[in-house]
TrEMBL record:
Residues 135-256 form the CRISPR associated protein Cas6 C-terminal domain. It comes from Pseudobacter ginsenosidimutans. This is CRISPR-associated endoribonuclease. Keywords: Antiviral defense, RNA-binding. The keyword Nucleotide-binding does not apply.
Amino acid sequence: MRFLITLTCQQTDLVIPINYQYPLSAVLYHIIARGDKDYASFLHQKGYGKGFKLFTFSQISCPFKIEGDRLKLLSQDLNFQVAFHLPQAMEPFVKGLFQCERIDIADKKSRTSFTVKSIESLPDPLQSVKELEIANIQVKPISPIVAGLQNEKGNYDFLSPDDARFKESLLYNWRNKIATCFDTQTASQALLMIDIILMKQPPKSRLMAIKADTREETKIRGWINFNLRVIAEKRFVKLLLNTGMGIYNSMGCGCIVKLD
């Protein structure tokens, strides 16, 4: 399921970190954690067994100016999409978690407090595809897709879309998600296809910092400005749309949308 969340702020000087993904991810985790007790009760009553661990969110949409390592927002409202891999019946419950919440996007240098102005359910892009049918769709990233191979030190060597290993890394990650949500046999037997579709303008990279300006700072590189074709059974494509493509999805990377 997917939502469009609109935030608003009454401050006049709106400034957030250029690396806002980690602070925003932390807030989303906090909101979800506060609903854990009610959520566990809901799962028990409805017979569901999946948690909130698999989610992703898009880049923010708001006019801004870059000032050093800050984004100066030029509007009091901003919005972003967030997707969860949860049963559709949980939609009212998830909406309730976010309504009237305060969301602080902050680091050591600045803090801006927003309230949730609205949360809108977005339509299921695979509604016309029957269960067990093969979905064949084009998607585009609305947050940078991060693909990487772990090196001898256990760190990632990040790959670009023109590297043949980029697609293989995405497929590997997708298969791991299927193993997590279904089982290893289903994952190993699933027929999955990804094709990279380059545009007239080359893909653009973005270097992002997680836990910026701390000892735990980690820098990751993701890519946007290209499309992809994904082909697989509906349930597997739905998983990809709900959880993101590549790695660092819960940090706001790899959020994708279906193209019309």
